[in-house]
Amino acid sequence: MSDNRAIGVFDSGLGGLTVAREIMKLLPNENIVYFGDTGRVPYGTKGRETIRKYALQDEQFLLSHNVKMIVAACGTVSSVAADTAEALPVPFVEVVSHSVRAAVKATKNGKIGILATTATINSGAHKKQILKLLPKAEVVEASGTLLVPIVEEGWTSIDDAVAIETLRRYLKPMVDARIDTLILGCTHFPVLSSIIRNVLGNGVTLINMGEATANAIDKMLKAGNSLNDGKKTAEYKFYASDKTKSFEKTVKILLGNYDKNFHIEQVDIEKV
Asked: CATH for 97-209?
């Protein structure tokens, strides 16, 4: 059996493209429909009920495209509003639990860092799940508020002074605590991996939410005999609620080599 319907992926903006990229890399036959709520980004600074409302609208939009699975590529939605998936008619995948399992498996000294948005940190989702799996773990958290705009400005090169100094400040408590594993709890952050490694040292394992989530999707589709049969070239459809001046630059930064033939359609999410 196979299921050639697309995998639906949504995020508060374009950061979720790093999750889509990992899915494309691991599952090249799978069709993808991506929605980025760029008109209302960021979700990470908003209240719980607003985040839930937006997540429900995003999910309904993807369902209108007859997707076989919905992936909340947003760390904030995964932390604060994963319960919106309870009524969905298709499987739902969030990014928190899979990254937590990967971190717990990777750590050797039980000291795990979490670098995420304010809403994700305040939710305590990562920390609660880590301590459930590893009760004696030491968890060090940091809200990387300035990192999303830094990525979208393109200040991501390994020698960028602004990115380096900002990360040094955010990561200092983790360096002091001598963590050996760091969860990159926002989809923008993998782009900064090289700088983060330099700040923390090569002995720290970085957990990419997109990679951990793609691995989980692979296992779920195989278990359900729902992989695309690969008879046709995979199709990628991208939608956004707003298109900014820096849009194309941000897409290139986040999608990397997968930005070829990228075309995005703007939609009014409030009317879905």
From this structure: 3.40.50.1860
Residues with Cβ within 8 Å of residue 271, at least 6 apart in sequence: none
3-state secondary structure (DSSP) of residue 175: helix
Q: What is the CATH number of domain 7-94+211-271?
A: 3.40.50.1860
Per annotation, catalytic residue among 73, 74, 179, 204: 74
Could you tell me the two tokens for 238?
A: 């991208």
CA distance 113 to 141: 6
The segment(s) of the chain belonging to CATH 3.40.50.1860 are: 7-94+211-271, 97-209
What is the pTM (predicted TM-score) of this model? 0.88
Our answer to whether residue 55 is catalytic in this structure is no
Active site residue 72: no
* pLDDT tens per residue across span 127-163: 999 999 999 999 999 999 899 889 888 899 999 999 9
pLDDT tens sequence across 8-49? 999 988 889 999 999 999 999 999 999 999 999 888 788 889
User: Which one from 32, 55, 174, 186 is the annotated catalytic residue?
Assistant: 186
Give 12's contacts (C-beta < 8 A, 6+ positions apart): 36, 37, 40, 41, 42, 43, 44, 54, 74, 76, 77
Q: Say which amino acid occupies 247.
A: F
